Amino acid sequence: MKELKYPKKFKTEDDLKKWLDENEIEYEWCHVYINGDWEYQDEQHFWHLYRDGMELTKGIKIKWVFSDNNGDWRYQDEQEFWHLYRDGVELTAGVKAKWVYSYENGNWEYQDKQDNWHYFDKDNNKIK
Question: What does the alpha-carbon distance between residue 9 and residue 11 come to, in Å, rounded to a whole number?
Answer without folding.
Answer: 7
